[in-house]
Design brief:
With 245 residues, the chain is mainly β. Helices cover 0% and strands 52% of the residues. It has no helices and 21 strands. Strands 3, 4, 5, 6, 7, 8, 9, 10, 11 and 12 form a 10-stranded antiparallel beta sheet that branches.
Length: 245
């Protein structure tokens, strides 16, 4: 049903809310048996690409010219990189450095959040390494001491890495302690539950399946609403000088 042209999707100069009622699937080079929902890219003003990859069984995704982060939403993927094969199930994640040959193959039908960004090297920093893990093995950290708002850091934090990816889980009624405005941009995929997101001067109801892009300095705030926890996957650029030096 088309609901007479209604959608929650909104595009503003400093943010994007992309909701499932407006998703369009597309093929991309280097993939077979995979369709992609493209959420953010330089065409909207982002300095990274974020997409949801939908794999048919035996679907294959090959190399990318950028560094790549994968978070499995459902199903099972096999990642082959640096001579080893890793099984990735729901809540598994992997980071592949730029230029590292690799293949993702679907054992079952699967969906994964994929983030790609051109690497910004830093003089004297070590080279980034392949990272493979599962969120269940990471100890959550209370954000600013609030036990109702927990963060899992999925990427190593060090000068070798120029972005971070976390999950954030809010108990019902939990909220960010302040409205944030900062130089980092974000890509955010709602995984569970819902709530209210402030972006700029607008307020949006959001739910599992929604995607948000936030430009640098976009005022932002979230509060969880409902009877179940709200959880999202969030990207930010990190640890690089704003002049690119």
């Amino acid at each position: 049903m088309h609901h007479l042209g209604a959608t929650r999707t909104t595009v503003r100069p400093d943010h994007l809310l992309h909701t499932p009622d407006a998703f369009i699937r597309t093929p991309l080079p280097g993939a077979r048996g995979v369709e992609f929902v493209l959420h953010a890219s330089p065409r909207v003003g982002a300095h990274f690409v974020q997409m949801t990859a939908e794999f048919a069984q035996d679907g294959v995704l090959g190399n990318t010219p950028a560094q790549r982060f994968v978070y499995v939403l459902e199903g099972t993927l096999l990642l082959t990189v640096e001579g080893a094969t890793h099984e990735l199930t729901a809540a598994s994640f992997a980071y592949i450095p730029q230029g590292a040959p690799h293949v993702l193959r679907a054992v079952t039908a699967a969906r994964a959040a994929i983030i790609e960004k051109s690497y910004a090297p830093e003089t004297g920093a070590p080279a980034p390494q392949v990272v493979v893990g599962n969120e269940s093995s990471i100890t959550p950290i209370a954000l600013m001491g609030d036990e109702g708002l927990r963060v899992c850091n999925l990427m190593p934090d060090g000068p070798a890495y120029d972005f971070a990816v976390n999950t954030m889980t809010y108990d019902p009624g939990a909220a960010l302690a302040m409205v944030e405005a900062h130089i980092m941009e974000h890509g955010l995929l709602m995984l569970e539950g819902g709530g209210i997101y402030r972006l700029g001067d607008a307020w949006y109801p959001v739910a599992a399946g929604d995607f948000i892009w936030m430009a640098p300095w976009c005022p932002q705030w979230f509060g969880a609403i409902g009877k179940q926890p709200a959880k999202y996957l969030i990207y930010k650029d990190w640890r690089r000088h704003p002049l690119g030096a």
